[in-house]
Amino acid sequence: MARHYVTIKDIAKILNISVSTVSRALRDTYDVNQETKEKVLALAAELNYKPNFNATGLAKGSTHNLGVILPFITNYYFSTVITGIQEVAYNNGYNIILFVTNDSPEREFDIIENLSVSSLDGLLVSISSDSDSCDHFQEIIDEGIPIVFFDRVASEIETSKVMQDDYNGAFEAVEHLISNGYTRIAHIAGPKGLSFTEARLRGYKAALSKHNIVLNEDWIIYSGFSQDFGRSDTVQLMELEQKPDAIFAVNDRKAIGAMIELKNRGIKVGEEFGVVGFTNDPMSTIISPSLSTIAEPAFEIGKLSCELLIKHITKKYFQPEEVILPGKLISRESSMRTVG
User: Fold this and answer.
1) How many domains would you assign to the chain?
2) How far apart are CA 218 and CA 148, in angstroms?
3) Residues 6+ positions from 244 with CB-CB distance below 8 Å
4) Residue 234: helix, strand or coil by DSSP?
5) Residue 98 bridge partners (DSSP)
6) In this structure, is the dihedral angle defined by the CA atoms of residues 219, 220, 224 and 227, taken in order, positive or negative?
7) pLDDT at residue 260 above 90?
8) Alpha-carbon gap, residue 76 to 73, rounded angstroms
9) Of 5, 128, 157, 263, which is most buried by a Cβ count within 10 Å?
């Protein structure tokens, strides 16, 4: 018969407390009361609990490897984030190990399930679009491996997070279109459920409300992030009886897809139809007309995320922080119709 090794889940079940509470008690963190700590430690000794090898390696800080899990590698935004992460990691004596999910929640789960966390001191994570649950990340944290989320974050998990100001960036983008005379503004959004998809949608709605423009739900389309989705979303919009005269896209790739479809239909982007994206991808300056956008602080997000992770690794009582960085409107030709 296989020998059963006692885990923190066993201790949690016996004491009727959460796994994360047991984990924090064993690590003597600031947010567990003394009575609970004593009960956990006493039961752990009674059951001959042996700390997880992964967590032991982490506590010693001996691996000097950081894992980075992200949806894409070819995407301009994420490649820039990685550059920021690398700068901080290498300057602090850490190597990074990259894992790419291809925006698949199944692939993300498999990566976590098969992760050799004994070779990692911590993880930086941007979650997949359709992740229904983030329990697999909580389990890693409960075993003593710190995680910092960036860009696409798991809002229900208590750990440090670094994001751009999606709400105000979207608000500024839509208000910019309004100020240039566009009043029938559609939003081609990202997938439902992602925190930044919802934040940009709220910013879009708030700008319309501020300027007393009635919201048309038919002009809000959820889909993926690619250029092809931008084109197909625009086809859907232009087949409506009541058509928009502008599009705010959740990212630049979708905005470029929208512009290509509009040009194929003989619609003059900028002069007749406004388009604003979000990212400041280099493609936004190459396409004609050039694309107005909200520039994201991708490099800074990478740097700050890595700095926070290293603090979680090296400081026993470091409390989680949530950092939101502002974007910047860059006005170009795609939104330059003048009020007249």
Assistant:
1) 3
2) 36
3) 184, 185, 186, 216, 219, 237
4) helix
5) 68
6) positive
7) yes
8) 8
9) 128
Structure tokens at 65: 């490897």
Question: Closest by alpha carbon to 297, among 319, 323, 328, 318?
Answer: 328
**What type of residue is 109?**
F
Q: Is 165 left (phi over 0), alpha (psi -120 to 50) or beta?
A: beta
Question: Per the structure block, which two tokens stand in for 220?
Answer: 């809000």
**Sheet (strand 161-164) strand order:** 95-100, 65-70, 122-125, 147-150, 161-164, 322-325
Shared-domain flag, residues 99 and 109: yes
Q: What is the pLDDT of residues 174-196, one digit of tens each?
A: 999 999 999 999 999 999 888 88
pLDDT tens digit string along 264-302?
999 999 999 999 999 999 999 999 999 999 999 999 999
CB 204, CB 248: distance < 8 Å: yes
Residues 219, 287 within the same domain: yes
In contact, 197 and 231? CB cutoff 8 Å: no
Beta-ladder partners of 324: 163
- Which ranges of the chain does DSSP label H, i.e. alpha helix? 8-15, 19-26, 34-46, 53-60, 76-91, 105-113, 135-142, 166-179, 195-210, 227-238, 252-264, 283-286, 298-314
Same domain, 170 and 291: yes
Tell which residue, 126, 98, 99, has the closest CA to residue 110: 99
Position 261, amino acid: E
Instruction: Clarify whether residues 257 and 302 are in a common domain.
Output: no
Using DSSP's 3-state secondary structure scheme, residue 128 falls into coil
